[in-house]
Design brief:
The chain has about 120 residues and is mainly beta. It contains no helices and eleven strands.
């Protein structure tokens, strides 16, 4: 399995970005996907997950602002981020969790999101 994340960049406070994660290797349809982030000097934290059955879960810090989605036909998971603020600045990683597993098994390379005026 390979995961390729894209879509990061520099955005002003209050702005929006959409991250995408393209999966290859044939495991996308039946496994859960997620996004995590790591800010400088902080531990990596879970941002959002979406199961193979489209059930979503979000960190409290992003609820109402971020939306995770997936397109099984395109084998792509996305993270729409709205109302961004400086605390959202981090490297964002997409990840895949295999069926029945508790943690993520595969990781993308990370994409930088910087929120600054």
């Amino acid at each position: 399995v390979q995961l390729q994340a894209s879509g990061g960049g520099l955005v002003q406070p209050g702005g929006s970005l959409r991250l995408s994660c393209e999966a290859s290797g044939g495991a996308f349809r039946r496994n859960d996907m997620g996004w995590c982030r790591q800010a400088p000097g902080k531990q990596r934290e879970l941002v959002a997950t979406i199961t193979s059955g489209y059930i979503t879960n979000y960190a409290d810090s992003v609820k109402g602002r971020f939306t995770i989605s997936r397109d099984k036909a395109k084998e792509t998971a996305s993270l729409q981020m709205n109302s961004l603020n400086s605390e959202d600045t981090a490297v964002y990683y997409c990840a895949m969790r295999l069926l029945g597993r508790s943690g993520f098994d595969f990781w993308g390379q990370g994409t930088q999101v910087t929120v600054s005026s």
